[in-house]
Amino acid sequence: MSVSGKHDCSKQVCRTRAALGQENCNIKVSVIPPIKHGFENNLLFESRRDDNTAHSPNGHWLDFLAEVYKKGKELNIIFGTPDVLPEDQADVVIYMTQPESPNAGILQKSKCPRQQVVLLLMETALGAAYTLNPRNHAGYDAIFTYVSHLVDDKRYFLYPPRAYYRHRITTGLPFDQRRIACLVGTNRVGTAGTFPFRTGLFAMKRGWRFSLKDWLDYIFCPGELIRFRAEVGKACASYPGNQFDIFGEGWDLLPETKHACLGIPKESTLTYLGRYRYYFAFENHSSDDGLISERIWDALWADTVPVYRGHTRIDQFVPLECYVDARRFDTPKEMLKWLCDAPEKAWDKYRSAGREFIQGSGVEPFLPGVFAERFVRQIAAIAERKTAFDVSVGARPSNRNS
Question: pTM to 2 decimals?
Fold first, then answer.
């Protein structure tokens, strides 16, 4: 199908720029947030959100986007949420979460063929390896992913780990005033020790393409740490001395933890983690190319020692002197005993290494400013591509002038 018969959004973009007094703006980027409500009015770019969820107090997780907005303005690039900058009035549309259907990008391109559509693959691939399958990326001009083997710096770009502004670094309580450790997260394991069985048929009906490997991953979730987290939660709830705390949803599903969960925290992780010597920073998934989430950064910024399990090459990002590797223990009970018995000197060695790391040059590649500098320039380059898109076949973009 030729693009000549399709609606061209470029005139609308020009009218919008004039109406907003931004005639000199080179590029306009509409960013679709990971959830529908809470980020309106450009709150997405202000390190805050206006909703009432478990994650609401943790605006620091969005520091990288606040810096993206600032850097964009320096380069005459405007970023906005869809209520401020509608998708059909933008040069670039960025999806920050997995759409309901892989055809979302194709549909957007059918409305605005000359628009560049970008997908950020932010979430862990736990049971969702199919979202990393290039067959599901037909509608996108560019994909940002943490999966390094997909990265070619042409269509697939690295979405690296992201830390926070340094002014957020806090100082916790003295060693002898801290409780031993806390576990924060959602429990998805039922009394039988399993989580809900899924067939993948619902996703397939929505248009998602599965290889056999993708389908097996969806059903069996190899590498998942959900059950490990649940076992640690049960061990914390039953450990003598009442020195471990559990926060989050779903712990009432387990009789061992039902009485011990303290609910959903009403304050930022950077505020309360410093009341503990250690923080269980467990990812949802373990692999050598997986997501490095906010968990380990929360611990380091909040002045506690992370007990980490997830990315198997985490020491290539964070020095192993800064965290306790949970893989060294054979059982959760053995891990909890070591944490209880570790003297202040051993704890402070980890803590001091973590302080040195986040205040030194080693962490700089993960700070918001460095991320924004690279990301904004990549988006600018993507926006300047002269591409057309054949929505009839869902093809990859090709040079319009060829």
Answer: 0.90
From the CB of residue 130, how many other CB atoms can be counted at a distance below 10 Å?
A: 23
Structural domains of the chain ordered from first start: 3-164+367-399 (3.40.50), 166-365 (3.40.50.2000)
- The more confidently predicted of residues 134 and 1 is 134
Q: Which two tokens stand for residue 71?
A: 């850097």
Per residue, the 3-state secondary structure of 57-106, as one string, reads: CCHHHHHHHHHHHHHHHHCCEEEECCCCCCHHHCCEEEECCCCCCCCHHH
**So what's the pLDDT on residue 195?**
73
Report angle CA 259, 264, 265 to the nearest 5 degrees: 115
Three-state DSSP at 221 gives coil
Neighbours of 20 (CB within 10 A): 15
pLDDT digits (tens, 9 = 90+) for 93-124: 999 988 889 899 999 989 999 999 999 988 76
Residues contacting 328, CB < 8 A, separation 6+: none
Three-class DSSP category at 294: coil
Positive or negative: CA dihedral 129, 130, 133, 136: negative
Give the whole-angstrom CA distance, residue 46 versus residue 67: 9
pLDDT: which is higher, 52 or 317: 317
> Rounded to whole angstroms, how far apart are CA atoms 27 and 166?
29
